[in-house]
Structure formats: structure tokens, C-alpha cells
Amino acid sequence: xxxxxxxxxxxxxxxxxxxxxxxxxxxxxxxxxxxxxxxxxxxxxxxxxxxxxxxxxxxxxxxxxxxxxxxxxxxxxxxxxxxxxxxxxxxxxxxxxxxxxxxxxxxxxxxxxxxxxxxxxxxxxxxxxxxxxxxxxxxxxxxxxxxxxxxxxxxxxxxxxxxxxxxxxxxxxxxxxxxxxxxxxxxxxxxxxxxxxxxxxxxxxxxxxxxxxxxxxxxxxxxxxxxxxxxxxxxxxxxxxxxxxxxxxxxxxxxx
Length: 256
Ligand code: B12
What we know:
Layout: H1 2-12, H2 18-29, H3 33-43, H4 47-59, H5 64-84, H6 90-113, E1 121-126, H7 134-145, E2 149-152, H8 159-169, E3 173-177, H9 185-196, E4 204-208, H10 214-219, E5 224-225, H11 229-250
Parallel strand pairs: 1-2, 1-3, 3-4, 4-5
The protein binds cobalamin.
Residues 90, 129-136, 138-139, 175-177, 179-182, 206-211, 226, 228-229, 232, 235 line the site of cobalamin.
């Protein structure tokens, strides 16, 4: 395995932030060598190897959760950092995403069948009039990798479609993406539509896309802005906690 060990070492060396590097190093060091191989081949985008190694791991008795956490997600965490830090760009992320998907194809059915509780449910879509979906899809992939159930409404999504999806799936979170300055206002219009339906308190709304800023996100009344796919996962986790706390204050447990 020298190729994998050396490969992971040189990948770790690319992470500038020492505490982040330490965290990812810990993930690799605590993982079985087979999981390290899955991580490594995901990082370098070898979907055939990830496919083959995931099957080998399942046949050797590793449980699906271990493969997901120690192999696929650990690798994807490093890919996310490299993308955020401009070490790699969209094409490389899409290649890594294809490798993640190759592993997920084997792991996902087992996880759904075993009834592992998802972290929370997120509705994601690109807003009305906007056909850009590369960034949204990266966010979705990272959210799914982190354990969220995500319903993807695709592009050109009307406010009423967001509302219907939140109701249908009883989602705690909604994420909207926009890449055009002309479609950014449709995020605010969607939030207004939730207000008009009396549903604004039922869902935490996060927004993102290259032309957005924290200030714009605040002005339109969203609950949070994420600048990239890593930030999207962090934001979703924080907003989910807030949603749970709010629910607990609204429906306190009965005292015995
Ligand atoms: C690829 C692309 C296209 C592709 C889209 C393909 C696809 N399937 O997405 C095509 C060719 C279809 C296209 C079309 C158009 N495009 Co275009 N396109 C781009 C381009 C080159 C890259 C966008 C991209 O994918 N970036 C990479 C991803 C990873 O970044 P991202 O989307 O920002 O996503 C990240 C974050 O923003 C964040 N994020 C994203 N969504 C969310 C959501 C949440 C909830 C959170 C928390 C975070 C988050 O996380 C993501 C991952 O890190 C940009 C230029 C650029 N360099 O940005 C122009 C660009 C966006 N396009 C532009 C334009 C003008 C158009 C067209 C109008 C061109 C035309 N005249 O027809 C059409 C519009 C079509 C439409 N109605 O939408 C302009 C927009 C200008 C403006 N200020 O509005 C840009 C900036 C190019 C330019 N410099 O002029 N385009």
C-alpha cells in the first residue's frame, strides 16, 4: 500500500490550515487500510477502483456506515477543502463526485434498507429563471455525504414548487441557489411566498451562489448564506440544530 500511504500524505500536505489538516489526518489514521484505499481512490477520482473496493469491503464484512464514514466521506471531506482553497476546480470535483457516486451505489441501498435515521431533510433547487446547477449539485452531494436526505427540485424552480416540496417531505431545511444577478431576487420572492402561506416558521432557509453575499442573504430574510459546498453542510447542520431547538420550545416534553 505504499502508493496509498504516500498519496494520502501528499494530499494532506496540501491542506494549509493545521487544525483542519490534523482533523483529516485523524480520520485517515483511525480508518482501516481498506477504507484508506477507498478515500485515496475517491480523492484521485478513480471511480472504477472506488466501485471495486466498496464491493470488496462489503463482501469482507465492513458495514455500510463504516464504508460511508471512514472511506467515502473522509475522502470527500479532503476534496471539499481542496476545492474551497482553489487547489482543484470544478472538473476535478465532478470526477471525485463520480467516484463517490460509484461507492454510494452499493452503500445507499443498504443504508436505506437498514432504516438509519437521516440527519434531516433538505429541499434544494435553483431558483426560477436560472439554469445553473453545477454548484447546487456539489452542495447536494456533500449534504448527502454528510447524512442528510436531499430532495433535488432541479433548476428553474418556482416558489410554489419549493412550498409544495417542503410540505410533501416535511422538510426542516430549504436551500436555494442562484448564479445570475437577474434571478437572485427570486430567492426573496420565494421567501415572501412562504410568509404569505404562513409557513415561514416551519422551515429554515439557506441560500448560495456565486453572486450572493451575506449582506444580500440577510436583506432578503434568509436564515443563512454559504459560500461553498463545505459551508453549505456546516450551515445546514447549524440550522437543523436551531430548528430542533425551536421545535422543542414550541412542543415541550410533558413533565411526568
Ligand atoms: C457553467 C456556466 C453556465 C452553464 C450552466 C451549466 C450548468 N449545468 O450549470 C450554461 C452554459 C448553461 C450557462 C448559461 C448562462 N449563463 Co452562465 N456561467 C457558467 C459559469 C462559467 C460557471 C458557473 C459554475 O458552475 N460555477 C462553479 C460552481 C461550483 O460554483 P457556484 O455555482 O457558485 O456554486 C458554489 C457556491 O456558490 C455555493 N452554492 C451554490 N448554490 C448554493 C446553494 C446553497 C443553499 C448554499 C449554501 C451554497 C451554494 O456552493 C457551490 C459549490 O462550492 C459562470 C462563470 C463563473 N465562473 O462563475 C457563468 C455565469 C454565471 N453565467 C452567466 C450568464 C450571463 C449566463 C447566460 C445568461 C448566458 C446567455 N447569454 O445565455 C445563461 C443563463 C441561462 C439561465 N437562464 O440560467 C454570467 C452571470 C452574470 C451575472 N452577473 O448575472 C456568468 C457569471 C458568466 C459571466 N462572467 O458573465 N452558464
